[in-house]
Design goal:
Layout: H1 35-43, H2 57-84, H3 95-98, H4 103-115, H5 120-147, H6 176-191, H7 196-212, H8 218-236
Helix pairs in contact: 2-8, 4-5, 5-6, 5-8, 6-7, 6-8, 7-8
């Protein structure tokens, strides 16, 4: 400052903005989930992964070709069985074996075991086996009525398909004994895989016994086996059967 002049006051520092004046760039607050939202989230079922699609067109074609081939030899094979018997078996000797393919017998047997056990695997196996027998029985009766095929022992109309009919003697296709036996074998084999060969062997014996008893054609037995296996698989997989019955 010049001599004799009053000293000038030093400039004051610039005012610092107070923290209250500063607007912070913060993310918006996320509200905490309410108890209701949490309960809903816990109760919502976890979606099951989709099963991969399996192309079975080749299997279907193979079975269709096999069935068509059996149709062509049904009568000649039946004539041969009438003349020479079937593996030494006679019609009167297979009645007890055929009981293994009776729907009422198999259903009652599975229900009896189900009511007398507390083993979880046995409970599930007998329950599904009884349902498979019931499904196979319903499915096979529908197809028998739909196709109306003449039995091997009815005379002139044997082997012919009359279409939908309730006429006695025209309920040959497919074999109900075979379908029932294979449905039960499939369901039981699902829970006891090591015994699956035994179950299917017994089911096969039932099917062959219907040939020895002259009550079915070979193609009836083959179709019955396919229907029984399918009914059993649909039952254990909890999928609808032919009539869309889901137990």
């Amino acid at each position: 400052p010049a001599p004799g002049s009053a000293p000038q006051a030093a400039p004051l520092p610039a005012a610092t903005p107070s923290p209250q004046g500063v607007t912070a760039s913060l993310p918006p607050a996320v509200p905490a989930p309410s108890p209701t939202d949490t309960a809903v989230a816990e109760t919502e079922p976890t979606p099951k992964p989709k099963q991969p699609h399996i192309d079975r067109s080749g299997q279907y074609l193979m079975h269709a070709v096999a069935l068509a081939g059996l149709f062509t030899i049904d009568k000649s094979l039946n004539d041969s069985i009438n003349q020479h018997g079937f593996l030494g078996a006679q019609p009167g000797n297979v009645s007890s074996i055929l009981q293994l393919g009776e729907g009422f017998t198999d259903f009652a047997l599975m229900e009896a075991v189900h009511l007398t056990t507390d083993n979880p695997t046995t409970l599930a196996a007998t329950s599904d086996a009884a349902k498979a027998v019931l499904n196979a029985g319903i499915n096979v009766q529908l197809l028998k009525t739909l196709f109306g095929r003449g039995n091997p022992n009815i005379g002139a109309d044997q082997g012919n398909f009359r279409g939908p009919t309730l006429t006695s003697g025209h309920d040959s296709f497919p074999s109900g004994h075979t379908a029932t036996a294979f449905a039960m074998a499939t369901a039981l084999g699902h829970y006891y895989p090591k015994k699956k060969p035994l179950f299917y062997t017994l089911a096969g014996v039932v099917g062959l016994s219907t040939l020895a008893a002259h009550i079915h054609w070979a193609s009836d037995v083959y179709a019955g086996a396919l229907l029984g296996i399918w009914s059993g698989e649909q039952t254990v997989d909890k999928k609808p059967n032919l009539l869309f019955f889901k137990f």
